[in-house]
Write a structure and sequence with these properties.
The protein has 190 residues and is α/β, with parallel strands linked by helices. 37% of the residues lie in helices and 21% in strands. It is built from 7 helices and 7 strands, in the order αβαβααβαβαβαββ. β6 and β7 form a beta hairpin. The longest helix is centred in the first third of the chain and has 18 residues.
Amino acid sequence: MPEFEIPHWFEPMGHITSHCDLVALSNLVAGERAKRGDDSHLVAVEVGSWAGLSSLAIAQSGVMLFCVDHWKGNEADCLAEQAKVWTPDMAFATFCRNVRRHLYRGIFPVRCESKVAASCWPYKVDFVYIDADHRYECVKSDIAAWLPHVKSGGIISGHDYSIGFPGVYRAVNELGDCRSHGPVWWKRVA
């Protein structure tokens, strides 16, 4: 499994995901890719990309990744303060610089609300990773919006599955039959 390293030039915009969380995510995606074979073309959606660190962790396995975010921050967590510093245009431009060589080669930004993107999403995907608004109603809504777009045998997953994020914890528990490695949760779709 690949080891994930944060690039020295990366601008986190006030938000850092722990190294062990990034490794867990990277290994989850790489394991799925290995399970399906090197010639497989996995398509993934990340809901909530902000600076792009988890995007890089996902993309390093060679998947085609669509990053759905409005780049306005999240009023329910630390990004509320960061969004006062980083306007949506500045945040989006920084995301694009952060994902550099992957931009429009393996990482494709989709700049809009999660529900809007899901409502017009044209095809099934292999992997969905949810790390957007952590309030219960929002997590539940993101799961409901994206679950129908996951192929049978694919994975829906997300971040911050811990009692420190009660909205995420509750919504994921209601989804049922999920596994986790630290705060990274996932479920294989039947």
